Amino acid sequence: MKISILCEGRLNKGIENDLCKLYLDRILSLKNSGILNIEIKKISEKKEINKNKNIKNIILDENGENLTTLSLSKKISELNNQRVEFLNFYIGNPEGFKNSVDKFEKLSLGKMTFPHSLARVILCEQIYRCATLLTNHPYHKS
Fold it and tell me: What residues does each domain of the chain span?
């Protein structure tokens, strides 16, 4: 499965991007996680969300489902088992997502508010943590 973190707005340069790159490199270094590629890309507000059935789209939203790391790991594993090729996580701009996203699954990183650059870091770390769970790596301690 290929994972994309698609962000509306600017991708500021800084320590947050360095942390994201660190986690992305760690994810790709884990063999047998089922994650073949992961990237962060900037998208336009006007870009339509791809609705292909072989693509799973998850919108980060403060009102979305609040999953545990284990639940997210199971979701990634199930999508892999279903042969979903692409998993897209969408992060909107500070005003939220302008596209019609009512029909897409929504995920919350918690009840606190984070800057978008930090939300990317948190998401990257959680995906890395899920990959370690899927490979029985000792990073995640229950």
Answer: 2-133
